[in-house]
Amino acid sequence: MLYRYSEVFRTCLSLADLGLVAASWLLAYWIRFFTVFEAPLGVPPLQTYTVPLLLILPLWLVMFRSRGLYDPRRTESLWNEAGQIASTTAACVVLLVAASFFFRSYSYSRGVVLLFSVVSATSVIAFRLVGRMGLRALRRRGLNLRYALVVGAGRMAEEFIERIHSHAEFGIRIRGVLTDSPASTGVLSHSVPVLGGYSDLKSLLGNEQAAGRIDQVFIALPGDDGHVLEKVLNDLDDEVVGVRLVPDLYQFMTLRSSVEQLDGMAMIGLRDSPLVGWAAVTKRIIDLVVAGTGLLVLAPVMGAIAITNRMVLGSPVFFIQERMGLDGRTFRMVKFRTMECDAEHETGPVWSESRDPRCGRWGAFLRGRSLDELPQLWNVLRGEMSLVGPRPERPFFIERFRSEIPGYMLRHKVKAGLTGWAQIRGFRGDTSLEGRIEHDIYYIQNWSLGLDLRILVMTLFRGWTGPGAH
Q: Which pLDDT score, from 0 to 100, does residue 184 have?
């Protein structure tokens, strides 16, 4: 019955899309020839522009189906679907233009094609968004539901059930859990009943009186129970329920994850940086604008510090030191000098500390207000650093930390920053390295432009002079 409803839904969605595409083509024809645009060669007959629909409609249907735009999308982001529609429409238009070269008997208006590509994508996206939002509203009210069984327990099942419960708009209700460890707190904490062990799966699916209707089975086995996966899948071979596998990768997924295809084989990325594509471009543009503006606005302040440095500490005014940044590459970081030259000549590299005896009153003043960090705007402008990110460290200390602190090198998956999440949370100077790494990884995992803006604002109000600013 569910399969039949699903096919009816797909058919209706396909017809709606084709209707919108056809209407968009005719609307583009009307806008181009019957509104404010001039038609120096005259207005072509409508019949001439209805013939291409014989190619357009099948092409759009095939492309939309091949991109999975008629597959169930209960748990997918609305905006991901919108992006797929836009990219698929662009691909269809390219194919349409390419096909037109084989039919030279008539030249169609480029304006119509351009208008059509915009109108069709916009109308289909708007229709899908309104429709999905309507369905989600119905699901929040208990309609159009799907019922699921979770096979597994522990952290993986707990996280999965928590996310399902927090998104009522998905319309998925968890009937219960099957596990050989019924005492798992991850199940009981969400008031989801334990219906039996793994061996009870087949009997439950065949007995609606025991568990109710089951439409989906989510396999969320903990790593220790991975050996039972084959048996669970064998039990599901002759069942009609949908099956989804939620792999237990928590011990490996230290950063963001992704799924790629290699000639039909799925590959799961476990340590992907979030700063790729337009995200990286946008962040870089912000770095350039803010760093460039900052250097201009703060030039008088930096000039005054440089003059005072020359008078108090002598030459050189700046302190240049090798630090490690993105992907483990080193660069020369610039700061105002706050200590005498060769301060580490006798001690060797040492960790900075509060009230460093090697700093005089002037150096302590600069460090206490983080004014010695201002020249790093130049590093940001050069692309060696970013405004926000994990603070860069010296290679000497990194060689030690990487073997002592698990996950330390993950902080080099993004550019080093002038300020960062760890710094505004008080982890500066000689504070806990473990706490600093934890905050750096949190920043990478949860990166967004909004988080960057929040860090910058908090830095202005308390980051420069907070605890550990030395």
A: 53
What are the residue ranges of CATH 3.40.50.20 in the chain? Answer: 146-251
Distance between CA atoms of residues 174 and 184, nearest Å? 16
Query: What kind of fold does domain 146-251 have according to CATH?
Result: Rossmann fold (3.40.50)
Position with higher pLDDT, 405 vs 372: 372
- Taking residues 141-166, report their average pLDDT: 85
User: Which pLDDT band holds residue 118 (cuts at 50, 70, 90)?
Assistant: very high
Average pLDDT value for residue range 212-223: 84
* Higher pLDDT pick, 304 / 102: 304
* Mean of per-residue pLDDT scores for the chain: 82
Q: The pTM is what?
A: 0.55
Percent of the chain clearing pLDDT 70 (strictly above): 83
Mean pLDDT of 344-360: 60
- Please name the residue that has the structure tokens 């109108």: 119
